[in-house]
Every structure is written in structure tokens, then in C-alpha cells.
Amino acid sequence: MENSPEPTFLRKRRSIQFNPNHPGLCKHTLLSKLFGWCLLWLWRLVVVLPLLVFVTFCCVLPQPYLLHFLALTAISVIPWMAWTFRIFDCGPKCFPSTGPKKVCVVGGGLSGVTALKEMREAGHDAWLLDERRSIGGLFNFGDNAADEVSVWRDIVFVTSPFTTCFSDLPPAPLEQTRSTPHWAWTEFIAYLNAYVERFKLMQYVIHNRRVEKVSRQGEQWQVCSRDKQTDAQHEDTYDCLVIATGTHAKPVFAQLKNQELFKGKIEHAAYYRGADAYKGKKVVVVGAGETAGDIVWELSKECENVYLSVRRGAFVIPRWNKDVNLPTDFDTCRVRFSPPAWIHSKLILFAQFMFGKIYGTSREAEVRGHFMKTLGSNPMSSFSTKTGLFVRALATGKAVEKPEPLELTEAGVTFVDGTSVDADVILLCTGFTSNFNFLEGAPHCASCLYKRVFSAELGPSVAWVGFARPAVGTIPVLSELQSRWAALVFKGERHLPSFSAMKKTIARHEKMLRKQFCHYERLKTVNYVEQCDRVADEIGCRPSFFSTFYNLPLFCKIVAGPMCGFQYRLHGPGARTDYAKSVLKVLPITYLPVEIFFSILVNWAFFPFLWLDSPTLSPGNTLF
Fold first, then answer.
1. Nearest Cα residue to 527 out of 542, 541, 514, 546
2. Could you tell me which residues come within 8 angstroms of residue 465 by beta carbon, excluding any fewer than 6 positions away?
3. What are phi and psi of 88, to 5 degrees?
4. pLDDT of 444-477, one tens digit each?
5. Residue 39 pLDDT class (50, 70, 90 cuts)
6. C-alpha to C-alpha distance for 453 and 240, rounded to whole angstroms
7. Is there a contact between 474 and 453 (Cβ–Cβ < 8 Å)?
8. Residues of the chain with pLDDT > 90: what percent?
9. Strand order from edge to edge, sheet including 265-268
């Protein structure tokens, strides 16, 4: 695919030229250019030469250490601002609209719903085809059949409502930002239904319609679908497509040695509905992700014996931060993720070591430390497990940790350390994979897409929404941004780069992520803040330094407050400035001023290393 020829429809020259007077153009384009060039020459003429003289002076008279530190810190301000605030970035090029299109959205989960809303809001004639009986996808436990991939009855989200919700509808009254608990599936479905009702989307949703084949017909797409109730076939033609079938379409069944000998049951967590069905049984849970973590805790209260089989450790993040009495994901902010990933990992390990010496006397802290030591990589190089319930089960002895399975026997499991246990059920929490094989010419995985949204081979008429899975963060915020970008591209107001440019960008991004994430080939994870900003740059809605710095409280909320979709409604297409400010105003900041200052200093100190990479492919995430 890397050296495949450019499709003919992408070779056509674009007849629409860039219009500098178009109202969608970045408001501060000329000011950004002027200010950027001034800072560049100021850096060259005023800073570089004095810095060389100053370093030479300090080498001769190495006494003023404090002066040396303060001077280097002050000198770092100029390049750091040029980098973090993207002063050299003039925003996306905007083009006149080519008119609304007829759009087919495939999939009725959270990504499909927000895609339908953004398409309708942009003026497109959009329709959503969903093979299930109601919206919500696998999260709608009440309407999912026993043989369908689904969540279970007592599931609780690992991310908090205000960081998970869409930017058009807060999940609760604003005065309840500190007290809103994590969603159960019923609360999330209620929120999704309220979202659909508010924007009057239900009339454009077609349920029980399975898409079986999508093929190109000239410049359009022919969608062949089947009604699951009447078995009637339907064929419709659309101008554009949105694929929103999700990353959890098909369960991945791990192949265990001699599993045909096992007389018990081998099941996947995709079909787990509750602990009641396993009461009094001996269960081996394979995996150490969030699903396995919550299921182990539930089973430990009902089963005779529960064993957690893990290949390696995990970076465990509890849902709730007891120190500040706030959801832990409120710590996911620009300040925290501004240093390079490897620096961030070292800071986490240092904090774990220091606080472990002081507060790590409990059994749960020892278990978390054990999983961190056996992780086999840096914390920021792995997919975090954002639940601590299984740690509680292990700490209290209600569950037992075991290594990777070696083979199965008639009565149970033998592990790689030579130990064996009897088991009635082996529950595989070994992940899921996406499925868009119904689309002719589709890439084999979402990591082959340009910014995880568009295919270089299929062009700008097909968008994938909801396939960027962050290591830390939430998918709904990314899905909403991807939908907003796709709606603009479908209307012609944003253009994609050339075929070769997209392929080069995809290759560079893949190389960077493989270098950072040790298990990237299996999980295909992305950096959350960076991925949000990469898509926001295409829309033109990334938080602006010029429009927020004068408002210091708002500036602090954007820099050090929880990362959420409301930040991307301050300006640009689809902006709701006053509304977004009112929400950001009430969100708490979990960082102390000294922590914010320290994080900025770390970013300043490693600025020369960041500058060597492309701004959109930096090893660390920037504040603005």
C-alpha cells in the first residue's frame, strides 16, 4: 500500500483556489505571521549571541548558579512560546463550500450519533443505518441480545461524565461538576437519548438495517443493506460515507494450547452479562485491561475461586483521586502532557517511588507497585488500566494473580511458572478488533488512515469516525472532532493534502507511535491531547493564544484544567464561545501553581529536542 499509485480521482487539479477573504479564514493569520517572524529574528539576534557569551562567562566563573538558572529560564521563554502557542501556524486554509452532500453514517453507537448530528448541522442530507434495535451500540445493554457484543449489567465507565460528554450537551448541571459520579450504562444511554432528542436526530436513524456491501459507483457510493426483521434488501446511493462501526466490533479469541482438551467453558468477555451466571464456579480471567479489572472484582464476590492471568504488569489508574476528591481523569490536561512522553514517564515513576515510600504501606499500594514493576515498559508507553477494583480483589485475597497460561488440561489451566489450577470457566478478556470489510477497498486497519480519519486511497468522500483509541483519554471527544472535520471536508470547505503527502504523514506518524508505544502493533493507540489538536488544527478550532491569554482564568482552565471537548468550541467553525466559557469556568484545576510551573520548566528545558520534529509529530504534546 505504501508505494501504490495515486488514484485517478485524486490526480485531478482542484479548481477551487484559496480565498483569503473567506469568512472561515483564521482571524489572526496576518498577525500570527508578523509576530512569528519578529520572535524568530529576536531569537536569532538578541538571544543566541548573548547566550553563548553568558555560557562562556559561567564556565570561567562558575559561581552564580542561581543567576545561571534564572537566566536560562528567562531565555527559554521566547522559543517555548513560539512552539507551544503555534505562533507560526496560520490555521487551516478555508475554501468556498461546494454544497451539501447526501451522507450515509454506518453504525449507531456514540460515534455514529455525533457524526449524524455534525453532518446534519453542516447542512448535509445525512442518514444513519444501524443494525441494532436502538442507539448506543454495545453500550445499550438492555436492548442487546445474548449473542451480540455488549457491555454487562453492572458496568461503570472508567472516564468521568464531563470529560466523556459531547461539547454540545453537558452531562449534568454545571454546579455538579465535582460530584457527578461515573456513568453506568443506563445513565450513558439516557444522556445519548437526550442528545438525540435535543438535536432531533431520531427521524434520520434507520434501525435493524445491516450494511452488507458498499461499492464505488463513479463518484458516488452504492450501499447495499438488509433489514434484519423483514429480510428485505435495500440499495441506496450516497455522495459520502461515514464509517462509525467502532473499535469493538469483533472479539479476539486467544488460542490456548490444548484448549480442545478442556472440559469446561471458554468464553469471551464480549458475552459476559453479569457475575450471577458464574456463582460458585472456579474462573480464570485472562487479561489485565479495564474489562478484566472490573470483571475480576465482580466475580470475586460470587465465585468459589477467581484467578487473574496476566502476561505482564499494568499502569493502574484508579477512577477517583481521593487526595483531591475528584475524578482522576481531571488530571489529563495540557500541562501534564506537554513534556515529551519519555520525560512524562520518568516523572510518573519518580512520583510513584517518592509517594510509595511515604504512603505505600497499604496492601493495595503494594499490588499497584508490583504491577508497575512488571509492566516491562514506561507508563506512557503502554495502554493504562483505568480501574483499581481488581487491585482491591487481589489485595484482599478474593482473587489470585497468575502468570500467562502455558496450556490447558481437562480440568483446568497450567501456567508458565509450572503451577496449575482447576477451572470451570476460562473468561478471555483479550480485546476486540474493528470490522469494515463491507467496504470495497477499505484499509486493513484504522492506523493506515490519514490522522485516523481519511484513507489516502479512497479519497475525501469516506471518513472513519471513532477509530482513534487514546492510551489515556476518551473516544467521544475525538469522535466529535473527527465528525466536525469530516463535515467540512465533505462540503469542500477543507481540502486534504495530495496522495503522496498523506502517505508520508501516515508513515511518519506510525513510526513515531511505534517508537513510543511498546504494544502499538496490537492496540494501535494514539496520544490523546496531540490527536485532538491534530484534528482541531484541520478544523481551525484549536484554543487560540491570542483570544485566551488576555483572560487569565480562562487561560489557566485551558492549560491546567481537564481536557474536554468544550475547549474546541471557543472559536472556529461551530463555535459557541459564551457557552464553552461558562462550562470551562466551573471545571476544577487539580494542579497546584508550583506543579504547573514545574511542568512548564520541563517543557522549556527540552524545547531544542521538540523543535527537531514536525510540529504535528512532536514526541510531546504542546499546550497550544
1. 514
2. 111, 112, 114, 115, 242, 243, 244, 453, 479, 482, 483, 486
3. -85, -5
4. 888 899 999 999 999 999 999 999 988 888 999 9
5. low
6. 13
7. no
8. 48
9. 265-268, 425-428, 282-286, 305-309, 400-402
